[in-house]
C-alpha cells in the first residue's frame, strides 16, 4: 500500500492567520494526543484580510480540515472524532468552520527513518506497513513534530473532490 505525508501547500500565501490561537489552545496538548482536554467547539479570531483563501487543509499550527474533507474522512474512518473550530474574521464579517480530526498516533517508524540533527523532526520517513494495519489516516508516533500520513485511496479521493491547500509527499513503506 502507498502512503503520503500531508502538509500545507506553501504556494497559498493568503490562508487564514490566527490572532489568538496560542492563548486559547495549548498546541502541545494536541501533539501529545490529549484531545480530551480540548473543548468540542472553539472560536478563533483571524487577522483581518478580505482576501483570505479558506483552503481545505490548514496544517499549522494545528491540523484541521474543511467540511468537505471532514465528510470524506468519516467515510474512510467512521469512528474518527472531530473538534469543531469556528474561524472568525470579525472586521470583514467572515466565518468558516473547520474540523480537527482526533487522529490516532501510531508508532510505525522503521529503523531506516532518518531524524534531523536535533532529533525533533524527520529527514526521511520510512514506515512499517504491518504496524499501520489498515488505518487510512494517522499521525506518526514517537517524534515531537506531528506528521499526518494518509493512504493512497484517501489522497486520491481528496484530489477527485478538488480539495485545495495541501501538498503530498510519498513516504517509503517496508
Protein model, in words:
By secondary structure, the chain is of the alpha/beta class. It contains 5 helices and 13 strands. It has a 6-stranded mixed beta sheet. A hairpin with a 5-residue loop joins strand 3 and strand 4. The mean pLDDT is 92.
What's the helical proportion of residues?
A: 10-25%
Order of helices and strands: EHHEEEHEEEEEEHEEHE
Low-confidence stretches: none
General shape: globular
Chain-averaged pLDDT: 92
In this structure, how is the largest beta sheet organized? 6 strands, mixed
**Count of distinct strands:** 13
Write the layout of secondary structure elements.
Blueprint: E1 3-8, H1 21-24, H2 27-31, E2 41-45, E3 57-58, E4 64-65, H3 67-76, E5 82-89, E6 94-101, E7 105-106, E8 114-115, E9 122-124, E10 126-127, H4 129-132, E11 137-140, E12 148-151, H5 152-160, E13 166-173
Parallel strand pairs: 2-5, 7-11, 10-13
Antiparallel strand pairs: 1-12, 1-13, 3-4, 5-6, 8-9, 11-12
Give me some keywords for this one.
174 residues; alpha/beta
In short:
With 174 residues, this protein is α/β, with parallel strands linked by helices. It has helices at residues 21-24, 27-31, 67-76, 129-132, 152-160, and strands spanning 3-8, 41-45, 57-58, 64-65, 82-89, 94-101, 105-106, 114-115, 122-124, 126-127, 137-140, 148-151, 166-173. The strands form four sheets. Strands 7-11-12-1-13-10 form a six-stranded mixed β-sheet.
Amino acid at each position: 500500500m502507498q502512503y503520503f505525508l500531508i502538509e500545507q501547500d506553501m504556494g497559498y500565501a493568503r490562508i487564514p492567520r490566527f490572532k489568538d490561537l496560542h492563548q486559547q489552545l495549548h498546541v502541545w496538548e494536541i501533539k501529545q494526543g490529549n484531545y480530551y482536554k480540548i473543548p468540542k467547539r472553539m472560536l478563533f479570531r483571524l487577522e483581518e484580510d478580505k482576501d483570505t483563501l479558506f483552503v481545505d487543509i490548514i496544517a499549522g499550527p494545528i491540523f484541521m480540515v474543511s467540511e468537505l474533507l471532514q465528510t470524506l474522512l468519516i467515510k474512510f474512518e467512521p469512528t474518527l472524532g472531530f473538534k469543531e473550530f469556528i474561524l472568525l474574521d470579525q472586521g470583514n464579517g467572515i466565518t468558516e468552520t473547520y474540523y480537527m480530526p482526533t487522529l490516532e498516533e501510531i508508532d510505525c517508524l522503521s529503523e531506516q527513518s532518518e531524524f534531523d540533527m536535533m532529533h525533533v523532526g524527520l529527514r526521511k520517513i520510512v514506515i512499517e506497513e504491518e504496524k499501520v494495519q489498515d488505518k487510512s489516516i494517522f499521525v506518526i508516533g514517537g517524534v515531537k513534530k506531528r506528521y499526518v500520513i494518509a493512504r493512497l485511496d484517501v489522497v486520491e479521493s481528496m484530489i477527485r473532490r478538488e480539495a485545495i491547500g495541501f501538498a503530498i509527499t510519498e513516504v517509503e513503506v517496508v
